[in-house]
Request: fold
Amino acid sequence: MAAVVEMRAGSVMEQPIDFDTSRAFDDHGSVLLGFAVNALRDRALAEDCVQETFLRAWRSRDRFDPHRASERTWLFAIARNVVADALRARARLGRIGSDALLEQHPSTDRDPLERLRIVEGLSRLSDAHREVVVAVHLDGRSYQELADATGTPVATLRTRAFHALRALRGHLEGSEHPDAQS
Reply:
């Protein structure tokens, strides 16, 4: 979106909104990288995707509307498209050495776009809610183990998991639940 600037003679000129790429990278780069690494399971490719995300953001900075979405949300939308493009490109090329990859990550038989939606949903959760879901439901730790490690009561962890899973389910089904969003 462009800001309108009125000039002396009454003429109107559109001026692009300032998008500070360096600041945006400092603020959101590590979170976007985590999102891309989780979706792609390839750090080098994820780094390329984050770089492409910021390049696309800079090129389309005039279309950013802070009244429609936050900068972080806008960057995540771009990153989601970049990662989806990378997943499609990788699927077209096939996997080299996929046996070793399958041994390392047994869940790779899941549809890559479905995996991307799950990772995107997890990234929308608050840190506390995401920590419980990842530790208990993905890493296989018990609530008691997590409670001992974090000093958080088991009942609190169970409540966080309930709200986080409901929000994640809402994201996957297309109806958002704000309970566990950051």
Remarks:
- The helical segments are 21-40, 43-59, 71-93, 98-104, 112-124, 127-138, 143-150, 154-173.
- The beta strands are 2-6, 12-16.
- Residues 1-110 form a domain with the Rna Polymerase Sigma Factor; Chain: A fold (CATH 1.10.1740.10).
